């Protein structure tokens, strides 16, 4: 399986490319910007994306949706609860002094427990509200890898002071949905370095 992390946009989002070497099918998670860089990396891996996934609706994770959809023809997936954010990307990013483009509407909605295939591989959607109402993590069991968006970070958790955020809900999501995964699962958050489920269980200061 191909797993490539491309850091994009002014806020340093971990855009993740997943791919099947046998079939050439791939998925792109959180194309927040620098779409030319993402397209070039897809070409390097000889991948055709069959889907674009937003782990949640914040502008730094969705800002490149439209350009990547135009470049690849791939459909967009997001949780229904976060889909209203897609039409406000430009407005919200401008509040931070960052230019942005509104995203097209989603083609499909992520649902807890649903699976998305890319070639011979699959990922499972885990709904983890708290950072946003529709925040989701993506678990590739065969690779023992979790894409956690802005839910769980290395020694940190997602902020909950933005509209729709809830610290209590976030902690519950992490404890009941993510910490049930095996300790050895590698976690790739929406920003910053990777970690493991086991490390965060025992050392994350926000979950004591």
UniProtKB/TrEMBL annotation:
<keyword id="KW-0479">Metal-binding</keyword>
<dbReference type="Pfam" id="PF00753">
    <property type="entry name" value="Lactamase_B"/>
</dbReference>
<keyword id="KW-0378">Hydrolase</keyword>
<feature type="domain" description="Metallo-beta-lactamase">
    <location>
        <begin position="12"/>
        <end position="191"/>
    </location>
</feature>
<dbReference type="InterPro" id="IPR051453">
    <property type="entry name" value="MBL_Glyoxalase_II"/>
</dbReference>
<dbReference type="InterPro" id="IPR001279">
    <property type="entry name" value="Metallo-B-lactamas"/>
</dbReference>
<keyword id="KW-0862">Zinc</keyword>
<protein>
    <submittedName>
        <fullName>Beta-lactamase domain protein</fullName>
    </submittedName>
</protein>
<dbReference type="InterPro" id="IPR036866">
    <property type="entry name" value="RibonucZ/Hydroxyglut_hydro"/>
</dbReference>
